Amino acid sequence: MPDSPRKQPPSKYTADRSIPGAFEGETVTRRRLMTLTVHGAGAVAASAFALPALGFAIGSAVFERPPVRWEAVGAPGDFPNDNYLPRVITTVEGIGEVGKTTVYMRARNADDDPKDAGVQPFIAISNRCMHLGCPVRWTQAASRFICPCHGGVYGFKGEVTGGPPVRPLDHFYTRVRNGQVEVGPRYSVNSEFKRFPSYRDPGQGLDGLSQYVYPGRFSTPKQ
Ligand code: FES
Question: Ligand 1: distance of its center to the CA of 86 in Å?
Answer without folding.
Answer: 19
